[in-house]
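Hey,
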Amino acid sequence: MPRVNPEILVWARETAGLSLEKAAQKLQFRDTRRATAVDKLTALEAGREVPTRPVLVRMAQQYRRPLLTFYLSQPPERGEMPPLGDARYAGLRTMPRVNPEILVWARETAGLSLEKAAPKLQFRDTRRATAVDKLTALEAGWEAPTRPVLVRMAQQYRRPLLTFYLSQPPERGERGEDFRTLPAGHSAADDALLDALVRDVRARQSMVRAVLEDIEEAIPLDFIGSHRMADGPAAVLASLRTLLDVDLAEYRKQRTPTAAFGLLRASAENAGIFVLVKGNLGSHHTDIVDTDIFRGFAIADDVAPFVIINQHDARSSWSFTLLHELTHLILGQTGVSGARAENDIERFCDDIASEFLLPKEESKGLDFFGSESFEEIIENITQVSDEKKISRTMVAYKAWRGGAIESEMFNRLKSSFRNQWLREREERREQAREGVKRISPRVTRRFQLGPSLVDLVSRAMSSGELTTSKAAKVLGVKPGQVGSLVNAGQPPYEEDYAEPSRCERTD
């Protein structure tokens, strides 16, 4: 829809005989820490903010004006109301022309070639043109895409439909800082999947912040950005320990690494951080994002900070990744982390996470790397890993950073652990394909979302601040699935989600 002239908003309110104070109340604006209800309405009438369609619908109801009135180019003269079809309503019934550069950008950022995109968009070869020729004609601007074609593009390129009506391709930068060191074989398709996941998370995070503001729980968190790397590892680690207040002995008493992760997650969420476990676009049918491409993602928002853990990583690694991303939050850094820590900031965060889980005074005892065979070293590492509820790779990393082993041995161990984990992951997938009993999708979804997010949505819906459709967007589910997720009578998260211990340890 075209942009609304703010003068129309002022005219409509004043001709309805309403003051700013009365109108703001009728339009259901509420005071928050950031702005009063009147301030919000004033921002719309001054053109500093753009009214959403729901707001315009409420204005039409309260000001007793047809909705199309708000799309006039200028306020009508007194007593004059243009009939439908008047030229001043021009452009309201048709969408603007699509910039062909947007079509090229959307396809390329989805990691698709012309040859791969054409069949996905259901183009077919005919006598007059091939499927690729038809897509090329759209991208060159020789033909205009129909709405059904744009809908298919939105689905296949994983972009909102309105993206295709932008005047030009947006600048890149949704990921925040990119802390990763990527493997040599990574592809554009991998980056496209990651970008789609990040867009989804960012959209949901912004909605969560808005909900917190609406229910007056938008309290700034002073630990976000409270340190810099120059403060040194000891200061940052002390702040992390104070923030979580987790007893390491209690952490190690947990039955499984998943339960131990749950203890850390609960502490992080009690501090105001939303911790999600996610590795695809919402369904097991969608492509997964491998841990080489994305292991963790942090959004350092001071009201609604988010941490995303890749669900496809070994569960014994989840605690380490959570602590790594929490360190990014303390440093005030939004960005994506991968599996390889080869730059200063990633090694800094890895060192903080490993010291939290395996303090230096304990790691001094990791001296069993001398004369034993490679198999015996792995057996000893596994014993420490099981006892401490940490990944075997982290034990090896700690030994390497402490000088107990050389980098060549660390890389060999890391590769061995990963290969074993990949084999066992494939075994579990094969069992799932053969019909072995799987965890309930509802239980899985609740675990992935985390108690804090589910509880916030439940409270916001109970207070009337969040509709079912908006709740579905925040949770990343269909509206019909919201009820079962926010039901307060559901059992605990981690205990329900736990799998046999042999699937927990390997990494």
